[in-house]
Write a structure and sequence with these properties.
The complex is a heterodimer.
Chain A lengths: L2 H47 L7 E8 L8 E5 L5 E6 L9 E5 L10 E3 L4 E4 L4 E3 L5 E3 H6 L5 E2 L1 E4 L2 E7 H4 L5 E7 L7 H9 L1
Antiparallel strand pairs in A: 1-11, 2-3, 2-12, 3-4, 4-9, 5-6, 6-7, 7-8, 10-11
Chain B lengths: L1 H22 L4 H8 L2 E3 L11 H18 L9 H10 L4 H28 L8 H24 L3 H15 L5 H9 L8 H31 L16 E3 H26 L24 H9 L2 H16 L1 H12 L4 H22 L3
Antiparallel strand pairs in B: 1-2
Helix pairs in contact in B: 3-5, 3-10, 4-5, 5-6, 5-10, 6-7, 6-9, 7-8, 11-12, 11-14
């Protein structure tokens, strides 16, 4: 057997090995990519078929839209007892012109109210001040970075609704505790007292 | 003794295979014979896989479409809300709807590119005239799938798109009114319309498409794929390679790449909800999907009946092209005449599409 023949056979063997290694790598590589891609997709498809749970919140009727005048606010109580201050801050008729915020001051639980004259929410207990969107900007809530929780609000067919927990909806309608009025300096009896004493 | 036990174990292990083979007497050799259709070498060039691409995308459309149908409700009162639920609330609904929407766009683009490749390589010539016509049926069915799917969303644009489409059908002389009534299930858009579009989109047209694809592929297997020779190929190179596993591997990789592209497109440009359909208010600007821009612009350029009839005539010319091309080549003795006509056709489509895309009215 000549040396050439021996070398050729060895080369053939090497080539066969390289070829089979390449085949193995491409089969494993493509197989892994296919499994990863379609496996992920299959998992997503399975999750898609599982219906998303029923909504956990629903819309609760508050009052007629035009019952609340510009600058006025009302105090609404949900069936579970939460009190919500709903104010008309804009001149328009869309949901953006209204705002519904928890009326409970996050500092010590006093009732806050909307002051259109000062463009702020005010807590008379410790002079807590909140911006028109309920962010604490002065007094103890401002110092502590506390804000008034906001309720999503919508206007539909000239009626005002706020979004509450669906369990509350089942308990029946809420009620208006304080009818719409402009509150604040000159209107709020407590503040009037303070101004007089000052 | 040990040998007997080993033989018994081997026999038990292969029993299910033997059971299967007795009922389905197909050997590995038969399977190899069935799958190993020799594939011409030029299919190693990726742009020749454009025929497999729409087929792959069609499978994606079937799978995502079936999933969307689990939630979609084809009625005027519920359609928009069900699509909104899919898009905004159902887990991964935005992704699956996005893949379905982008899959349609890519499928139509791939069908058009495939047809252009077949055209410019002259692969429709004798003996492949019939398969060209089957391909034309596939193109029209795919466009109809796109149209009916677009109308199902019940957005302002899709609603008015359906209305305009039905009126176009209605302007065909003699049979127009009948076609419009059949499409809408009445004289105008009514409670029967969306179920019709849905059945066409989800049952009739996909079934037709599957049948046409089977015929298309069967004819390819009977006739063989058109073979091309390239100047840069060495003369002793083998003319074909194996369908399995080599070509299947290429198609799988193309499929994976398409999946990545679809997922990326659906993420970067996810489907959104336009305004709900309002039958009393026509939007300022009505646009169909991009693949109908060319027809839409054509309709604006010419009076109604002429535009519709001329569109029908162009489609007829496309159907009969293998025979017209044959006649032209014999008459004028210039083999490249079809290429120049093709370039003119493609440029016209591009210009009309861009024109429609760039102007509001």
């Amino acid at each position: 057997m000549s040396e050439d023949t021996v070398r050729t056979r060895r080369d053939d063997g090497d080539e066969r090995m390289v070829r089979s290694r390449r085949t193995l790598l491409s089969v494993v590589g493509v197989g892994a990519a296919l499994t990863a891609a379609y496996g992920t997709l299959a998992a997503m498809m399975g999750r898609f078929l599982l219906p998303s749970g029923p909504p956990s919140t629903g819309w609760m009727f508050v009052t007629q839209r035009d019952h609340l005048g510009l600058g006025e606010s009302l105090l609404f109580q949900t069936p579970a007892g939460a009190t919500v201050s709903i104010a008309r801050q804009g001149a328009g008729t869309a949901a953006e012109d209204f705002i519904a915020l928890s009326s409970v001051c996050p500092h010590l639980g006093c009732q806050v109210h909307w002051e259109p004259q000062n463009d702020r929410y005010f807590c008379p207990c410790h002079n807590g001040v909140f911006s028109p969107d309920g962010t604490g900007i002065g007094g103890p809530p401002g110092d502590a970075g506390q804000s008034l929780p906001r309720y999503p609000l919508k206007v539909e067919n000239q009626l005002l609704f706020i979004e509450v927990d669906v369990a509350e909806l089942a308990q029946g309608p809420g009620r208006i505790l304080e009818e719409p009025a402009v509150r604040g300096p000159g209107h709020d009896p407590c503040l009037d007292c303070r101004q007089v004493s000052a | 003794m040990a040998g007997e036990r080993a033989a018994a174990a081997r026999s038990a292990a292969t029993a299910p295979l033997r059971w299967l083979h007795e009922r389905l007497p197909i050997s590995g050799e038969d399977l190899r014979e069935l799958t190993n259709e020799p594939v011409p070498n030029h299919l190693k060039r990726w742009w020749f896989a454009l025929g497999g691409t729409p087929a792959y995308l069609f499978v994606v459309q079937i799978v995502t479409g079936i999933l969307l149908a689990f939630y979609y409700q084809p009625a005027p009162e519920t359609a928009y809300e069900s699509v909104r639920y899919i898009t905004e609330e159902a887990a991964y609904g935005w992704l699956l709807r996005g893949i379905h929407k982008w899959g349609a766009t890519l499928m139509i683009a791939a069908v058009i590119l495939h047809q252009m490749r077949v055209y410019f390589t002259g692969a429709y010539r004798k003996p492949r005239e019939i398969n060209w016509m089957v391909g034309m049926c596939l193109l029209i069915s795919t466009l109809m799938l796109g149209f009916t799917g677009y109308c199902l969303v019940y957005e302002q644009l899709s609603y008015w798109g359906a209305a305009v489409g039905a009126n176009i059908a209605g302007s065909v002389p003699l049979v127009g009114d009948f076609m419009k009534v059949m499409l809408l299930g009445g004289d105008g858009f009514n409670q029967h319309t969306l179920p019709r579009f849905f059945v066409l989109h989800a049952a009739v047209l996909p079934t037709l498409l599957i049948l046409l694809i089977v015929v298309h592929i069967a004819i390819i297997r009977v006739q063989g794929v058109t073979e091309f020779e390239f100047a840069d190929e060495p003369p002793d190179k083998p003319k074909t390679f194996n369908f399995f596993p080599e070509h299947v591997m290429s198609e799988l990789i193309i499929g994976l790449l398409l999946m990545v592209v679809l997922a990326a497109l659906a993420t970067i440009s996810p489907p959104i909800m336009g305004p709900r359909a309002d039958p009393l208010v026509t939007p300022e600007v009505i646009k169909p999907e991009w693949f109908f821009y060319v027809a839409f612009r054509w309709l604006k350029l010419f009076p109604g009946t002429f535009a519709v009839l001329s569109t029908g005539f162009i489609v007829f010319i496309m159907f009969a092209w293998p025979f017209i091309d044959d006649w032209l080549r014999r008459r004028f003795k210039k083999p490249e005449i079809s290429v120049w006509i093709g370039i003119f056709g493609v440029l016209s489509i591009i210009v009309l599409t861009l024109w429609e895309a760039l102007v509001a009215h």
